[in-house]
Structure formats: structure tokens, C-alpha cells
Write a structure and sequence with these properties.
Distance between the termini: 25 Å
CATH topology of the largest domain: TIM Barrel
Helix content: 40-55%
CATH superfamily of the largest domain: Aldolase class I
Number of helices: 15
Largest sheet: 8 strands, parallel, barrel
Strand order of the largest sheet: 3-4-5-6-7-8-11-12
CATH architecture of the largest domain: Alpha-Beta Barrel
């Protein structure tokens, strides 16, 4: 069965676009699958190697666990599984980089094998990081990166060929890694450099040569994209917006490789107009992650502020306060990313674009606070004048009869405002 994503991106020779939603948050996934059900449009949901791997990652899920998790939500939402494309991001020795090459690559082989077996059909092969046995003082050569990528590609294809079932789809692959570590940049920067044309060409030509040396002559039928840095990124309180003039030389070079598109990471917080320009310029796969949970957190904060107006203090969920307490008790997921005074750290924990609080939303105490928040609003109806004060966009949709005045539906709609920007960008 031909890969659905490959069909979507190159339809009758015309490049299309797709949003790649990189998230493991159940509420966000529910919202995205609700939208997929309404529109009957495919939705691409990705997991990264540090989120999901054979050892559980920080979510505690293996690739099969994650696939089952998404499909279970889909079944509950009444969304057809046929609309779901699963992707694996930064697959390679990323989480094993402290091991020697031999050990790290053996673990990476298991990782990609498990992703393919679990039904992930978009595989980003990322072998760009130095391993424990690599020379510290020398940069990693493109040839070494490609050699390791070829090994993992071969494992993926061998795994696919051993699978059974009429509905199985041959995986497609993304190469390259012109991005910060998964999770975003750790510090504010003065500017973002667009990938050099020479570096992009070197990546493609080296991979082509190395794959042929490995006898993988048909690999380029299955490689659909190259990750580049088109000049977009975000920090705690700043966003670097796409500048198509600065990216023009790079995007023009893509025309020499008509079978490929660019994959752009860290497209979070770009305006819908900027996202559309990116798609028009060949950056057809738009990855977004923290912006989704950032918007979820915003919506939950808004509900919390309304709760303080409507619910007796002793019954309040105190979601904002619980989240802060949990983050302070277990600072491991933010302490190395946020910098400044105590006051600045407090602001960053809540409001940073890097959204490190997303790592705490699955904490049992935080989950209980969210459930209590929703239960409290199940007992009351939010007055429209209060809804107008805190969620004016949702207020208008409630008045027009487009969204129910129900806490969870309001949160879903807020999250889907992010998805709407990507839908605008990729529509014909």
C-alpha cells in the first residue's frame, strides 16, 4: 500500500503541505483527532526518541504503547484510524549518545525497528550527534552521519518487509538535522542562521552516494524530505519569524531535487501568513509541538481564573498553584533551560514559549487538578459575560452556536486555534 504521506506531499507533481503535530499530551491529541473527524482529513502525530523509545522515554511509553495510546483516543473520539499518520522524530542514537558507536547504534537499531513494527510510517533518521567514542575535537563528518543513517534505513526496510497485512504502508524517511536538540533552544539568541546551500547539497549528495555504496539503490524512492533550518526558532520570550528573502537561495536550490521537500522544525508561534509562505517556498512539513501545549496551558489558566470567580475556595482545583508546586519540587525538566532571577524564573515556568511545563502535565497531582477543574465546571454554566472577559474568541463561537459552553470543549477549541493556523498554511 502506497504511503499516504508521500501521496499527500507530491500530488500530480505539485508540492502540498502538512502539519506535523509532535505531542504526547492526551488532551491535545483528543482535540486534533476531533478536528480530523470533523474534516475527514489525515492528521500526522509524531513522537520523538526522547519521548518514546524501547525503554519508555520520559512518557514511559514504547513505540507500540504510543501507537495504542493514540488509537485508543481515536476510537473514543470516533475518529477513523485510517486518518492517522504516525511519525517518529530524531530516531537514531540521540538518547544513547554517551555510549560508544557500537553500543549506541545497536540500541538505535532496536529503536527504529520498534517504531516501524508499531506502524509508524514517517521516520526521521537523525544520526547527527557525536557518540561516546567519537573524537571530541573534530566535527562529525557528513559521511559518518550518512553511514549511520544508511544502517538504520536498512533496519527499517528489513523490518517492514517482514511485516504482514494488506493495510501496511511502506515507511517514508526524512534525513538531516539542522535544529537544536528536541525540546527547543536553551538560551536566547541574537539571530538564527538559515542552512547554507552548500551544506544542504552536501547532505543530499553524500547520503545519495553512501546509500548507493550500501546497495540501497531504491532508497530515494522512500526519502521524501530533508530537515533544514529556514530561519525560525523561539526562546523563552522571543520568536524568530520566517523571512523568505533570507531563505530564498536555500529554497531555490530545492528545485534541483523535485522529489524532495523541506521539513521545518520549531515552526511554533509563527503567524499563519508566515507558515503559508514556508509551504509555498517548499518547506512542506511544518513541525509544531510546544505551541500546542502552550495554548492548552493558557486555556487551563483561563479556566482557573474563572473558577476563582465562580467556585468556593475550598472546592477549587487550584491548577495554577499545583503546577507551580510540582515544578518546584521536581525542577529537572526546566532548571537547565530557564535563567535569571527568582522572579524571572517564576515567569518562565508559567509563560515561556519553550513551555517546559508540558513535561509536568502528566504528573498525577497535576492531572487530578485538571480533572477537578473540569468537574467543577460540569456543575455550573460559565456566564457569558465572564466567558467574554477571559476567552473572547471562544465566547464568539459559543454565541454563534459553533462551540458548546462546556469547559473541555472550550479548551479543545483554544488548542485548535493553533491547528487552524497550519490548516490555513497548507490549504490549496
Amino acid at each position: 500500500m502506497e504511503n499516504m504521506l508521500k501521496q499527500m506531499l507530491k500530488n500530480e507533481g505539485v508540492t502540498k503541505g502538512i502539519a506535523s503535530y509532535c505531542t504526547a499530551n492526551a488532551l491535545v491529541i483528543e482535540a486534533l483527532l476531533l478536528r480530523a473527524k470533523e474534516t475527514q482529513s489525515p492528521v500526522l502525530i509524531e513522537a520523538t526518541a526522547n519521548q518514546v523509545n524501547q525503554f519508555g522515554g520520559y512518557t514511559g511509553m514504547t513505540p507500540k504503547d504510543f501507537a495504542d495510546f493514540v488509537y485508543r483516543i481515536a476510537d473514543q473520539m470516533g475518529c477513523g484510524r485510517n486518518l492517522i499518520i504516525l511519525g517518529g522524530d530524531h530516531l537514531g542514537p540521540l538518547t544513547f549518545k554517551d555510549f560508544s558507536e557500537e553500543e549506541a547504534m545497536e540500541k538505535a537499531k532496536v529503536l527504529v525497528r520498534e517504531y516501524v513494527k508499531a506502524g509508524f510510517t514517517k521516520i526521521h533518521l537523525d544520526t547527527s550527534m557525536k557518540l561516546g567514542s567519537d573524537a571530541k575535537e573534530q566535527p562529525l563528518s557528513t559521511k559518518t552521519i550518512a553511514e549511520r543513517g544508511a544502517v538504520l534505513y536498512q533496519v527499517c526496510m528489513e523490518t517492514f518487509m517482514q511485516m504482514r497485512g494488506d493495510e501496511r504502508q511502506k515507511p517514508v524517511f526524512v534525513i538531516g538535522s539542522e535544529v537544536p536538540i528536541p525540546g527547543g533552544a536553551t538560551e536566547a539568541e541574537d539571530g538564527i542562521s538559515v542552512t547554507k546551500v552548500a551544506d544542504f547539497v552536501d547532505t543530499v549528495e553524500t547520503y545519495r552516494r553512501v546509500f548507493e555504496e550500501h546497495g540501497l539503490f531504491d532508497a530515494w524512492e522512500n526519502i521524501i524530505a530533508v530537515v533544514v533550518q529556514p530561519g525560525v526558532e523561539y526562546g523563552d520570550s522571543q520568536v524568530f519569524y520566517y523571512n523568505r528573502v533570507e531563505a530564498k537561495s536555500l529554497c531555490d536550490t530545492l528545485k534541483k531535487y523535485p522529489i524532495l521537500v523541506f521539513e521545518g522544525h520549531s515552526t511554533d508561534y509563527q503567524t499563519k501568513e508566515k507558515l503559508k509562505e514556508m509551504v509555498e517556498d517548499g518547506i512542506a512539513i511544518l513541525k509544531v509541538g510546544p505551541a500546542l501545549t502552550f495554548r492548552l496551558r493558557e486555556a487551563l489558566f483561563l479556566l482557573s481564573w474563572m473558577e476563582k470567580e465562580l467556585v468556593p475556595k475550598e472546592k477549587q482545583a487550584c491548577f495554577i498553584e499545583v503546577l507551580e508546586e510540582v515544578m518546584l519540587e521536581d525542577p529537572g525538566n526546566w532548571i537547565n533551560h530557564y535563567h535569571g532571577s527568582e522572579e524571572e524564573l517564576a515567569i518562565a515556568r508559567k509563560y515561556s514559549y519553550s513551555d517546559r511545563c508540558r513535561y509536568y502535565l502528566s504528573n498525577s497531582r497535576v492531572q487530578e487538578a485538571i480533572h477537578t477543574l473540569f468537574r467543577n465546571f460540569d456543575q455550573i454554566e460559565i456566564p457569558l459575560n465572564l466567558l467574554h472577559q477571559y476567552m473572547p474568541n471562544q465566547y464568539e463561537k459559543v454565541v454563534r452556536g459553533e462551540v458548546r459552553n462546556h469547559a473541555k470543549q472550550l479548551v479543545f477549541d483554544a488548542v485548535l486555534e493553533i491547528a487552524a493556523s497550519y490548516e490555513y498554511a497548507i490549504k490549496n
